[in-house]
Amino acid sequence: MKLKGTKFQKQVWEEIKKIPRGSVKTYKEIACILGKPNSSRAVANACAQNPLIIKIPCHRVIRSDGFLGGYSGKGGVEKKKQLLIKEGFYEFKTI
Q1: pLDDT > 70 in the chain, percent
Q2: d(CA 58, CA 15)
Q3: Is the alpha carbon torsion for 78, 1, 37, 91 positive or negative?
Q4: Which one, of 68, 31, 70, 78, lies nearest residue 50 by Cα?
Q5: What Cα–Cα distance (Å) separates residue 14 from each residue in 11, 30, 56, 77, 86?
Q6: Residues assigned a catalytic role
Q7: Which residues, including other chains, have CB under 8 Å from residue 73's CB and lie 6 or more apart?
Q8: Could you tell me the sign of the dihedral formed by the alpha carbons of 19, 61, 81, 68, in that order?
Q9: Alpha carbons 26 and 64: distance in angstroms, whole number
Q10: Residue 25: enclosing H or E segment and its boundaries?
Q11: Which of 39, 47, 49, 63 has its CA 20 to 30 A from that of 6?
Q12: pLDDT tens digit sequence for 72-92
């Protein structure tokens, strides 16, 4: 299946696919990897547009301050939290 999105979105999604189960990266880290260190918000927006929630595990991307950020999948941020816990990642902040 060919993904529909901008060049930048596709780059973000490819980078997200590299994050191992039980690990996370921040929106900022992904922006830096892509050579666009001031594009954290654009990375978050690309996550929100993720067309393949299962194949592109955007729940593994969190905010730089340790909070979870958003999640566009069914169940929202609570589901993101559950997925990370299921994978063995607990080092995030909650309100």
Answers
A1: 98
A2: 10
A3: positive
A4: 70
A5: 5, 10, 8, 22, 23
A6: 58
A7: 53, 58, 59, 79, 80
A8: positive
A9: 5
A10: strand 25-26
A11: 63
A12: 999 999 999 999 999 999 999
Q: Flag whether pLDDT at 95 surpasses 90.
A: no
For the chain, domains (ranges, CATH) are 7-86 (1.10.10.10)
Question: How many residues are given for the chain?
Answer: 95
Which pLDDT does position 1 carry in this prediction?
64
Read off the pLDDT of residues 16-39 as tens digits, 9 standing for 90 and up: 999 999 999 999 999 999 999 999
| Burial per residue of 18-56, b for 16 or more beta-carbon CB atoms within 10 angstroms, e otherwise | ebeeeebbbbbbbbbebeeeebbebbbbbbeebeebeeb
